[in-house]
Amino acid sequence: MFGYVPMCSPLLRLSLGPLAFLVFVLAAVGCTGSDPIVVIALHPSKSQIIYVATNDYIYKTRDGGTTWKNISKGMSHSRVISMAIDPLYPATVYAGTKGDAVFKSYDGGQRWASLRTGLEDNTVTSVVTQFVFDPQESSHLFVSTTMGVFESTNGGESWQKRMDGMTEVLMVVTLALDPTRPQMMYAGTSGGVYKSVNRAARWEKANKGLVPPELIKSSRALGVTVMQVDARSPDTVYAATLNGLYKSTDAARSWTRIAQELPDQMISAMVLDRARAGTLYIASREGIHKSEDGGKTWKAINQGLTSLNIRSLAQSQMDPLLFYAGTNGSGLYKSENGGETWTPMPPLHGKA
């Protein structure tokens, strides 16, 4: 899209404006020349089943990573940016791409079908960045894209754009849904955060403390890359941006910047611990950091990693001590002790 510029290049920020840089981050390649681990999707009830997307292919393991199979047959060669497993019917898998909309598999990735209805006009320039399921009905889901938010009530067979109120932005990078109040949603965009209290029917800005007042009307005010809602305390919301991590304790009415002591403020992934309240993990080009007090203090948890340039991070739904980290060109790592130590996993291989 912008030509090859490594993620580690100091020239990157100088050569791209903030909006273009945000798009670049969504489809960046690693510094080593190897494919980055763009997405890690874990089966909700079978710990041995893992899906991984790289720049070129989707791979699947059924034995915890000992062996991998390329399952990209039937898909285009458009880059996969996001994946999601249906929480109720985990044989159903979704893949969001750069430039070719959404693909869906009903059989664990053996066959894929293109889902374009409602997305056709936006396919060529669109990047599908995230899937979010309604916790009450998994066939009801939302996607964030660089052309806006879209909703499907029939498992992706058709999509409707949901951008009412987002008059100043187009690019939506991340979505977060309050699991205790699923009508409440948050959208991280190229211009800060928007909030909906009626399942994306209408959005309103929620940028107090996040974006300076003089920039609050600018569509390039701040690029938000990851958002998470704390299920134990749903008024607590975290927003990672291209310029640091922010926290709200009043459902995004106001924001406070935290974690300013971290060595890299451009955050690529964030996980809220499923088992321990107030514990969160963030990943960046300077490794993985953990906080056990809601973001007040942090420690690096990088023992065993040969590369600190982390692209993706995932926690098992069954074992809260089991984590996977994908690097920007140095493979996939596993931790069985909450990130205290990491071990490299066998390399991905195979052709479609």
Keywords:
Methylamine Dehydrogenase, Chain H; mainly beta; four-stranded antiparallel beta sheet; globular; 2 helices; single chain; 2 domains; 352 residues
Describe this structure in words.
The protein starts with 11 loop residues before the first helix and ends in an 8-residue tail after the last strand. Residues 1-21 and 28-33 have low confidence and may be disordered. The strands form seven sheets. The protein has a four-stranded antiparallel beta sheet, with no helix packed on it. A four-stranded antiparallel beta sheet has the order 5-6-7-8, with no helix packed on it. A four-stranded antiparallel beta sheet has the order 9-10-11-12, with no helix packed on it. The longest helix has 9 residues, at 18-26. The chain has two helices and 28 strands. With 352 residues, the chain is mostly beta strands. The protein folds into two domains: 1-31, no CATH class; 35-269, YVTN repeat-like/Quinoprotein amine dehydrogenase (Methylamine Dehydrogenase, Chain H, 7 Propeller). The radius of gyration is 19 Å and the shape is globular. A hairpin with a 7-residue loop joins strand 23 and strand 24 (299-300). The protein is 4% helix and 36% strand. It has helices spanning 12-15, 18-26; strands at 39-42, 50-53, 58-61, 69-70, 80-85, 93-97, 102-105, 113-115, 128-134, 137-145, 148-152, 160-161, 172-177, 185-189, 192-196, 204-205, 224-229, 237-241, 244-248, 256-258, 269-272, 280-284, 287-291, 299-300, 310-315, 323-327, 332-335, 343-344.
